């Protein structure tokens, strides 16, 4: 395949898990790692691609962890949503240090800290070349930030959801325990759901499927991978409807 320097996607949603911001410590925020992500996002912007980011919060707090220890689930989930706001501010700060114009929009209002989520306003920001960071999940307990990313991707009519992970892509078995695990170049949404593959939760996968939003699962730890995906290099795993159509992965 030929790799053009023309971006393959016009508007993307990048899903960053909290862990992606934590670096090797696995918790908290590593400013060096966040800075590296910010630089990579800036490179992608340089190609005229519109980027919205959905940040997770697992490096600080996960609702399920709290509820499994006896907390009220909804309360624990609100704590998780607030954790994503902390991460969003860290990424905003790093991007601004690189001269990128950023707007954080939260699904739970906190006007002193960030804008509330307003879909049309988010789209305007993107059209002006600003990065929009969506924080506080979708504002509801019992959801994940993966589902939020799928939802926002549908709402802002993104061409793709880029799911940054620690693995190279989606495997047919767990690569950490099975040495024969094979990375898949492409897989259908339905097979992800049927085989219960750990791409993201079923709600998020279904939402992408119902709205024909392709997902590219790729390794975030390799510098430059976001740009490679956006330029159409065949890295990671493409999750879609079955055939790589004209807008497909390669
Ligand atoms: N969360 C929520 N509703 C949402 C998004 C997130 O309640 O719409 C909570 C949930 O408790 C979750 C936590 O926020 O565990 C952090 O999000 P997530 O686990 O998706 O973060 P990631 O795994 O991407 O770091």
UniProtKB/TrEMBL annotation:
Regulation of this protein's activity per its record: Allosterically activated by GTP. Inhibited by UTP.
User: Mind telling me which GO cellular component terms the entry cites?
Assistant: cytoplasm
Q: What is this protein called?
A: Uridylate kinase
> What is the organism field in this record?
Sulfobacillus harzensis
Report the protein's function: Catalyzes the reversible phosphorylation of UMP to UDP.
Positions of the region Involved in allosteric activation by GTP? 23-28
Q: Which SUPFAM superfamilies match?
A: Carbamate kinase-like (SSF53633)
Q: What class of enzyme is it?
A: transferase
Question: Which reaction equation describes what this protein catalyses?
Answer: UMP + ATP = UDP + ADP
List of residues binding UMP: 57, 77, 138-145
Q: Which UniProt keywords apply?
A: Allosteric enzyme, ATP-binding, Cytoplasm, Kinase, Nucleotide-binding, Pyrimidine biosynthesis, Transferase
Looking at the record, the residues that make up the Aspartate/glutamate/uridylate kinase domain are: 11-219
Keyword Nucleotide-binding in the entry? The reply is yes
Encoded by which gene? pyrH
Look up the record and give one Gene Ontology term from the biological process aspect.
Answer: 'de novo' CTP biosynthetic process
List, in alphabetical order, the Gene Ontology terms for molecular function in this entry.
ATP binding; UMP kinase activity
Quaternary assembly: Homohexamer.
Q: EC number(s) in its UniProt entry?
A: 2.7.4.22
């Amino acid at each position: 395949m030929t790799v053009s320097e023309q971006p393959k996607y016009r508007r993307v949603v990048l899903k960053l898990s909290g862990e992606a911001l934590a670096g090797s410590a696995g918790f908290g925020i590593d400013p060096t790692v966040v800075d590296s992500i910010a630089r990579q996002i800036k490179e992608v912007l340089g190609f005229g691609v519109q980027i919205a980011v959905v940040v997770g919060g697992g490096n600080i707090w996960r609702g399920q962890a709290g509820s499994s220890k006896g907390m009220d689930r909804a309360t624990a989930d609100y704590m998780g949503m607030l954790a994503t706001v902390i991460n969003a501010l860290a990424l905003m700060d790093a991007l601004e240090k690189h001269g990128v114009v950023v707007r954080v929009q939260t699904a739970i209002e906190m006007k002193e800290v960030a804008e509330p989520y307003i879909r049309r306003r988010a789209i305007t920001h993107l059209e002006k070349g600003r990065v929009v960071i969506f924080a506080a999940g979708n504002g509801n307990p019992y959801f994940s930030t993966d589902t939020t990313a799928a939802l926002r991707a549908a709402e802002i009519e993104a061409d793709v959801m880029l799911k940054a992970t620690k693995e190279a892509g989606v495997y047919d078995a767990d690569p950490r325990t099975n040495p024969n695990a094979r990375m898949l170049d492409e897989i259908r949404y339905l097979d992800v759901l049927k085989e219960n593959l750990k791409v993201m939760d079923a709600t998020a996968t279904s939402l992408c499927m119902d709205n024909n939003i392709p997902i590219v699962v790729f390794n975030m730890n390799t510098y430059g991978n976001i740009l490679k995906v956006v330029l159409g290099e065949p890295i990671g795993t493409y999750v879609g409807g079955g055939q790589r159509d004209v807008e497909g992965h390669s």
